[in-house]
């Protein structure tokens, strides 16, 4: 019987930037601050559920025998990409470290179009079932004995990963075909959970709508507001403005009030360590960074902080920042009430 093992992706979650808005200025100015980890957004983890053989690789027990292992490459994904250099790099790792981690010698012959290979490395957009574990980015048989090898064996690697992550996952899966388990060395390669990055993706600031969907939960913390009821009505004006639809903004947006700490939109009052404006507002954006470039690709939540504002200005500031995170980064792209608004216009019934 062949047991199948896998590696699980864990995507980094980063915070974005905080930008102040001076209500006396003609147009807001952006001042980015360094990104920080977002402790409230869950990462995706998992453990293999397949039953593993009790036996492990032992010195001079190469399950493939003494001949070079012929490796073919099959691209079943939806993108054209040259995987050969990455597979060669992964194979070379085990050739160069066989004495240290395997206890036997191993040699590979990578021939992408080999007709009768010993092993196929298949790149696919979706990993076939591998023990019933979600979010797998690779899958391979764990082979500890020559009687377990049924040529050609197949190693599955998820396409769409960065070069470094593709190489890491391929190394990991080749390790399984050489008898190694998740507890074996080298742990940098064989551990069950690793940080995995995708190929480059558009940043949130480059997307038309940088959210997974248009349904939002909203929490309003009014403890530090001078007029709790008044600011509540002002926030309602801003939310209704977008819910009813406005030119240049996504349609079918919905907002559900909640007291939950994990609300996607949080509005609060009073200074914070990242928002010390004497009178104005700031926004902090949080989201995922699947390609590891240090910039958010998709927002998961935002915090709008209002400091020292009179009640009548609250709705405008909330509306301004919502346009910002709904895809209108530049003021020229925002709905007309938020373009070069004067002090008086910000305190008018701009939503009508």
UniProtKB/TrEMBL annotation:
Chain segments carrying region Disordered: 20-65
Biased composition (Low complexity): 20-59
Domain Peptidase M10 metallopeptidase: 156-192
Lineage top rank: taxon: Archaea
EC category: hydrolase
Keyword Protease among UniProt keywords: yes
Pfam families given in the database record: Peptidase_M10
BP term (GO), one: proteolysis
EC numbers, comma separated: 3.4.24.-
MF terms (GO), sorted A to Z: metal ion binding; metallopeptidase activity
UniProt cross-references to InterPro entries, sorted A to Z: MetalloPept_cat_dom_sf (IPR024079), Pept_M10_metallopeptidase (IPR001818)
Keywords: Hydrolase, Metal-binding, Metalloprotease, Protease, Zinc
Protein name per UniProt: Matrixin family metalloprotease
Native organism: Haloplanus litoreus
């Amino acid at each position: 019987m062949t047991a199948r093992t896998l590696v699980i992706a864990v995507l980094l979650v980063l915070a974005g930037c905080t930008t102040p808005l001076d209500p006396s200025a003609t147009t807001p100015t952006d001042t980015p601050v360094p990104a920080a980890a977002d402790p409230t957004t869950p990462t995706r983890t998992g453990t293999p559920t397949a039953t593993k053989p009790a036996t492990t690789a032992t010195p001079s027990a190469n399950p493939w025998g003494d001949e070079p292992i012929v490796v073919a490459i099959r691209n079943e994904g939806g993108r054209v990409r040259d995987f050969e250099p990455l597979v060669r790099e992964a194979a070379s790792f085990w050739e160069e470290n066989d004495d240290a981690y395997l206890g036997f010698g191993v040699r590979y012959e990578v021939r992408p179009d080999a007709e009768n290979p010993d092993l196929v490395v298949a790149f696919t957009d979706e990993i076939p079932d591998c023990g019933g574990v979600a979010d797998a980015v690779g899958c391979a048989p764990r082979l500890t004995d020559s009687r377990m090898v049924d040529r050609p064996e197949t190693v599955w690697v998820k396409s769409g990963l960065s070069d470094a992550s593709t190489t890491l996952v391929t190394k990991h899966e080749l390790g399984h075909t050489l008898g190694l388990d998740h507890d074996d060395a080298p742990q940098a390669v064989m551990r069950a959970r690793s940080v995995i990055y995708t190929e480059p993706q558009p940043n949130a600031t480059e997307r038309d709508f940088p959210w997974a969907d248009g349904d939002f939960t909203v929490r309003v913390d009014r403890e530090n507001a001078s007029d709790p009821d008044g600011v509540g009505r002002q926030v309602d004006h801003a939310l209704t403005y977008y819910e009813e639809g406005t030119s240049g903004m996504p349609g079918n947006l919905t907002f559900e009030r909640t007291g939950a700490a994990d609300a996607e939109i949080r509005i609060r009052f009073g200074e914070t360590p990242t928002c010390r404006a004497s009178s104005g507002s700031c926004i902090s954006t949080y989201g995922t960074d699947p390609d590891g470039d240090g910039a958010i690709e998709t927002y998961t939540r935002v915090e709008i902080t209002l400091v020292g504002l009179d009640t009548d200005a609250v709705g405008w500031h909330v509306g301004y920042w919502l346009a910002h995170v709904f895809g209108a980064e530049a003021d020229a792209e925002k709905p007309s009430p938020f373009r070069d608004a004067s002090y008086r216009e910000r305190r008018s019934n701009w939503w009508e």
